[in-house]
Amino acid sequence: MIDCNIIRDLLPMYSDDALSIESKCVVDSHLRDCPECRNYYSSIRRIAYTFENQEGHGSYRYSEIHRLIRRRKIIEYSAGALISAASIAGIIKLISDAGKKSKD
Ligand SMILES: [Zn+2]
């Protein structure tokens, strides 16, 4: 089976009907067999539908929604990495301070 990340990269073009017939068949087949990608596709369609129905918004392309979701994930991963780094630095400082106290 094709990697889910590749399929998810293709979904915006799939939604915009911009894929070749061969690529569309690959995505169709993957969506039939992969519940995670099917759920992901449903969620970006739902978000696009919500945006399209808000006042003041024109039609949203799925590629824009996909880009927004990916940007949010990058921010979440970066925040997670920063928190992890800060936690590790705090633990190292605690261990270092405990070592100094035990020497005194
Ligand atoms: Zn998948």
Please tell me about this protein's structure.
83% of the residues lie in helices and 0% in strands. It is an all-alpha fold. The protein has one domain (4-103). Helix 1 crosses helix 2, helix 1 (4-15) runs antiparallel to helix 4 and helix 2 crosses helix 3 (35-53). The longest helix has 42 residues, at 62-103. The model has no long low-confidence stretch (mean pLDDT 84). Zinc ion (ZN) binds at residues 4, 7, 30, 34, 36-37.
Shape: elongated
Estimate the strand proportion: under 5%
Number of helices: 4
Q: Structural class, judged by helices and strands?
A: mainly alpha
Q: Give the helix proportion (percent range).
A: over 70%
As residue ranges, the low-confidence spans are none
**Cofactors, ions, other ligands:** zinc ion
Distance from first to last alpha carbon: 61 Å
Total of domains: 1
Alpha-carbon Rg, integer: 22 Å
Largest sheet: none
DSSP strand tally: 0
What does the average pLDDT come to? Answer: 84
